[in-house]
Amino acid sequence: MSSSIAVFVLIYVAIVHTYRLYIPAISKLILKKLKLVSAQNEDKRKALQDLLDQQSEIDMKEEFAKYAKIERKIIKLKEELKSLKKSQVATRFTVSWGITLALNTIYSVFMIGLIWSYRYEPVILLEEEWAWPFGRILAFPCGIPGAVGITAWLAVCSAMVARLQGSVQYFFLGDRTSSKTS
Q1: 126 contacts 147 by C-beta, under 8 angstroms
Q2: Share of the chain above pLDDT 70, in %
Q3: Whole-prediction pTM value?
Q4: Which residue in 29, 67, 137, 147 could disulfide with 122, CB within 3.0 to 4.6 Å?
Q5: Distance between CA atoms of 51 and 176, rounded to whole angstroms?
Q6: What does the record list as coiled-coil region(s) (predicted)?
Q7: What is the DSSP string of the chain?
Q8: Is the distance from CB of 156 to CB of 163 less than 8 angstroms?
């Protein structure tokens, strides 16, 4: 394998690893676009607002019975909205989990495809003595003595890209990303 392929793999890993870093953000974006709010929920909110408006127009001392009746309806609607919200949170969690799983599956398919494509070719050929005693591990899966196989090269590239992205993030965001408490 030529050095241009090694650079290609490095760039490929950088792009795919960057994609993997943004999976939570992509998942949230897709979830926002889906808008999982039901029409029933919106109708109940509108009815609650109407009841609150009616209640604010009624003098509690003069029309206590009517005020109390509206108050009971408001309490009932608030309880129904709470139960709808709980089910909506569960639905959002399930959909978010499914989206994240699908995006991670895409990431895995890309990486497995890369390993499968270059499984018999060495990425870099070294002198056998340079790779000793880890020569067989580095050469996996191609098995050529003194070679660096695709899996070892992917591990090196992934580690390097992760460090580079962490450094860039620290440079641009500073210490704001750490969760230190004073």
Answers
A1: yes
A2: 92
A3: 0.60
A4: 147
A5: 45
A6: 34-87
A7: --HHHHHHHHHHHHHHHHHHHTHHHHHHHHHHHH----HHHHHHHHHHHHHHHHHHHS-TTTSHHHHHHHHHHHHHHHHHHHHHHHHHHHHHHHHHHHHHHHHHHHHHHHHHHHHHHTTTS-SEE--HHHHTTSHHHHHTTT--TTEE-HHHHHHHHHHHHHHHHHHHHHHHHGGGGS----
A8: no
Paired residues of 148 in beta bridges: 124
Nearest-angstrom CA–CA distance, 4 and 74? 69
The answer, yes or no, to whether the previous bond of 145 is cis (omega within 30 of 0) is no
Q: Residue range 10-26: average pLDDT? A: 81
Q: pLDDT by residue (tens digit) across 45-75? A: 899 899 898 888 888 888 888 888 989 999 9
Q: Which two tokens stand for residue 96?
A: 């978010």
